[in-house]
Amino acid sequence: MTTHRVRVGIDVGGTFTDAVAVDATTLRLLGQVKVPTSHHHEDGVAHGIVEALDRLLRQVDRAPADVAFLAHGTTQATNALLEGDVATVGLIGVGTGPGAFLTRRLAALGRLELAPGKRLPLVYAHVADPDDTAAVREAVRELSDGGAQVLVATEPFAVDRPEGERAVLEAARSAGLPMTAAHEITSLYGLHKRTRTAVVNAAILPRMLATADLVDASITKAGVTAPLMVMRCDGGVMALDEMRRRPLLTVLSGPAAGVAGALMQERISEGVFLETGGTSTDISVVRRGRVAVRHATMLGRTSYLNALDVRTVGVGGGSMVRVAHGRVTTVGPRSAHIAGLSYACYADLDDLRDATLATVRPMPDDPDDYVVLDAAGGRFAITLTCAANALGRVPEGDFARSDQEVAKAAIAPLAAALGVDVPTAAARILDAGVAQVRSVVDSLVRDYRLDPDTAVLVGGGGGAASVTPHLAALTGMEGRIARHSEVISPIGVALALLREQIERIIPGAGQEQILAVRAEAERAVVDQGAAPDGVEVEVTVDPQTSTVRAIATGATELRTQDRSHSADATERLAAAAASLKTDPAEVRILAGTPAHTVYGTEVRRRLRAPRRPVRVVDADGVVRLHSPDARVTATTVAAAPELLAHLVREATSYGDGGVRAPALRLLLGSRIADLSGVLDPQPLLALARSEMRDRAADEPVVAVLEVRS
Q: DSSP labels for 271-319?
């Protein structure tokens, strides 16, 4: 019998460190462990990571050499910023004349508030000529005397002319301090925002470097030969050396791990992921098979950090019920954990004997309308999880499952006070809690224009069953709880792909410049260990801001997932028909590749041309791409360039808004190449050709085109 190698994901939380082992071939969960996070150990969180890894490998009977992939996510950078536990930054501004005026103003970054009463520790020095080595070294001495522990060099227009910032770093190298240049952190224009992003990155750099070195040494000592990866805030992972350069990318990576797990394990192509813990729910979006990211807000200001677009609501499985004037007013934000109470639904029936209702203040400054039970076994909190269990919304085997009779007994005193039966009281609790989540979900569906025909709600986290099933019932959207929802974050870490995003502002960008940005992103993930043949690159050109953006993703090995349980033709057709909301008899196969089948139907409309919605289904029976109205054409690699040129020319529109090429996606091998972010026909066709380079002439290609209105 063949023993498959394993992928290991470790999620370092504030209280616990969770680790999972996933079969590298079947991607099946093999084992999971939980250990306390070792904040106060002399080796810091590295000790807990190694302890979790050791226990995990013993549990699944694997040796360190069997680890094919190892990655960890950490809240360390986020916590450092929240707590104000950062290094003093020495900022070297470069410039003369107007440039000097602009850079000297950056000294005000020392007024940024990290935490109440704690400001960003920053000292500033100015250098007129970056090539004046003596002046640079004098500035470094001045900053060191002022307590600087890390250096940042910044100069106006360094995005286009980085030589000045590089010269400063070279001259400052002898000081032996960690250092970075603002243009290395982001290549977008905007001196103040670019420098602010670089300064925040530098503030956490020394601490993160120390942790990286400890984790790296510990993993190597443990006998693991797979390179160590670190979770990024945009849903991918990066090599440890890249984390050493840009630790800021780990900020907000906690929620990103969960949505990465939903994306890879649950194979969501369109929907909303809700990760529910005891106190809060993180809500994020998957649109057309990709996580939604945006420039993050840090320290109250926008940055150039591309992070998961996550909205947090103070409602979780442990959220306590609040009552006033004979009705349930809301749920949370305080949870049973904060109040130091147990969930009533996890008590024994005998513990709930003689229960009476009371109200409390969980924290001294809170209102006194939080409901608790005083019973034979002590004081218990009535929570959202209690209500979900009372209504039977928590499935068998779920992490949050309790005895339904106990849950009903927990709700009964409140129901009596409200003058209703137990199911009605439980429903009112869920309505009050989920209403807060629903408003955010509705907003995200609008903001990202999610397709209501295909969007799904997927719940993760230990409290998933307290929110997602009821939300699905209220909205009418399809909803489900992710498999192994309580460890969806470490699963996401284990399954995440290497990711790199390159952004350049290029006014009037031509196809050569766009292809160069694409190549840079592809090269970046390959340099970090991605298998070249499996790299996918999504390119977007924003004509309003002249921003060219390339996002490359790839695995550290070519994935050869076991297909012994692939969906058959009937199952794939059923999946397409369900997504299209029509009878399978009305669905036909339009095209296909060995990895994907394209299905379509026709929707007739009065006085208007028929609409032809399309669904692309993979070998597992998962809808990977959908279009409300598309043209599908099958061809080969050899014939594709000429045919695509004709199709794009025919579908390009011209108007007051400029040229708008069709949204083009190519099914090629195991990949879906998304070229929909490019509006100019010539760069679009150049990118299409680049996707097909080095492929066999007779390999099938399927083009899916949407005409833009």
A: EEEEEE-SS-EEEEEEETTEE-EEEEEETTEEEEEEEE--EEES--TTE
Region for 451 from its dihedrals, namely left if φ exceeds 0, alpha if ψ lies in -120 to 50, beta otherwise = beta
**Rounded Cα distance, 480 and 16, in Å:** 26
Residue type, 551: I
Cβ(251)–Cβ(291) below 8 Å: no
With b meaning 16 or more CB within 10 Å and e meaning fewer, what string describes 492-514?
Answer: bbbbbbbbbbbbbbeeebebeeb
What are the structure tokens assigned to 268, written together?
Answer: 């969501």
Identify the CA nearest to 28 among candidates 562, 404, 523, 635.
Answer: 562
Closest to 12 measured CA to CA, from 205, 254, 236 = 254
Query: What gap in Å lies between CA 482 and CA 89, rounded to an integer?
Result: 42
CA dist., res. 131 & res. 155, Å (int)? 13
C-alpha 518, offset from chain centre: 22
Of 638, 610, 615, the closest CA to residue 625 belongs to: 615
Residue 544: Cβ-neighbour burial (10 angstroms; 0-12, 13-18, 19+): exposed
The closest of 358, 357, 347 to 389, measured between CA atoms, is 347
Cβ distance 705 to 635 under 8 Å?
Answer: no
Confidence of residue 270 (pLDDT cuts 50, 70, 90): confident
What phi and psi values does residue 558 have, to the nearest 5 degrees? -70, 120
Q: How far apart are CA 579 and CA 367, in angstroms?
A: 46
What digits encode the pLDDT tens for the residues 513-558?
A: 999 999 999 999 999 888 888 888 999 998 888 899 999 988 876 5
Range 346-363 average pLDDT: 92
Cα 530 to Cα 96: distance, rounded to the nearest angstrom: 43
- The residues near 396 (Cβ < 8 Å, ≥ 6 apart) are none
- For residue 164, give every residue at least 6 positions away whose Cβ sits within 8 Å of its Cβ, in sequence order, or none: 94, 130, 131, 153, 155, 158
| DSSP one-letter string for 222-260 | TT--SPEEEE-TTS-EEEHHHHHH-GGGGTTHHHHHHHH
How far is 465 from 349, CA to CA, in rounded Å? 22
344: pLDDT strictly greater than 70: yes
Pairing verdict, β 237-239 and 228-231:
antiparallel
Q: Answer yes or no: are the C-beta atoms of 91 and 29 closer than 8 Å.
A: no
My answer on whether omega of the bond before 333 falls inside 30° of 0, hence cis, is yes
CB distance 205 to 37 below 8 Å: no
Q: How many angstroms separate the Cα of 699 from the Cα of each of 520, 535, 536, 563, 632? A: 26, 18, 18, 21, 17
Reading phi first (left if > 0) and then psi (alpha if -120 to 50, else beta), residue 340 is in left
**Rounded Cα distance, 371 and 362, in Å:** 10
pLDDT band at 358 (very low <50, low <70, confident <90, very high): very high
Kindly provide the b/e burial profile for residues 628-665, where b requires at least 16 CB atoms within 10 angstroms of the residue's own CB: eebbbbebebeebeeebbebbeebbeeeeeeebbbbbb
User: Partners of 356 in the beta sheet?
Assistant: 374
> What does the CA dihedral 359, 364, 366, 369 come to, rounded to 10 degrees?
10
* Integer Cα distance of 195 and 143 in angstroms: 17
Residue 160: in which H helix or E strand, if any? Answer: none
Nearest-angstrom CA–CA distance, 548 and 13? 35
pLDDT tens, 91-129?
999 999 888 888 999 999 998 888 777 888 999 999 999
CA torsion, ordered 415, 441, 600, 582, to nearest 10 deg: 20
| Tokens encoding 49 | 């990571």
- The DSSP letter of residue 382 is -
